[in-house]
């Protein structure tokens, strides 16, 4: 509530019941104290994500069945991670070095979570589900280390997939941002010709 709107309500305050008047004044005071964003202002960006990933969680370049769709607010609808195509029993790998912070079941699904090394405080945390864990809480894992296998049930995809998430504290981030551009590229690597050297 800005100053003009509040001033416009002043003539009506004496006619309001005392409880309503107090409620209105409380709301006006809180609204006055909270800084309002400038017109056209954008939300502040989330934490910076270092490209520490050295492996895909499954396969070498899996198809992204559903991408990251950040919610507008903490409780709004969205997709807090990405879904990667993966058959049941496929090996699930740690994308970067870290320590297993959770390996167990949540709402009937197997979940593995890894706190990534050297990613600040709080450390970035990756999650993988549905996964039959082959690691325990506290285990240290290297990039590409197998942490479990894709479970045949518990996926929210039409076909079996791996849900891969990334968090900083309680803030969800795009897990693909962990991977450097060279690892995200699809297709085989190609060698460029050296200038001045004729082709064989």
- CATH topology label of the largest domain: Glucose Permease (Domain IIA)
Residue fraction in strands: 25-35%
Structural class given helices, strands, pairing? alpha+beta
What's the Cα radius of gyration? 25 Å
Strand runs, count: 11
Helix content: 10-25%
Mean pLDDT: 76
Low-confidence stretches: 1-13, 18-45, 187-194
What are the salient characteristics of this protein?
single chain; 14% helix; Glucose Permease (Domain IIA); alpha+beta; eight-stranded antiparallel beta sheet; 11 strands; 2 domains; three-stranded antiparallel beta sheet; globular; disordered N terminus; 200 residues
Describe the overall structure.
- With 200 residues, the chain is of the alpha+beta class.
- The protein has helices spanning 3-9, 18-33, 181-184; strands at 64-66, 82-85, 91-93, 98-106, 109-116, 124-129, 131-133, 140-141, 146-150, 161-168, 171-173.
- The chain is built from three helices and eleven strands; from the N terminus they run ααβββββββββββα.
- The model is unreliable at 1-13, 18-45 and 187-194 (pLDDT under 50).
Summarize the topology.
Elements (H helix, E strand, L loop, with lengths): L2 H7 L8 H16 L30 E3 L15 E4 L5 E3 L4 E9 L2 E8 L7 E6 L1 E3 L6 E2 L4 E5 L10 E8 L2 E3 L7 H4 L16
Antiparallel strand pairs: 1-2, 2-10, 3-9, 4-5, 4-8, 5-6, 6-10, 7-9, 10-11
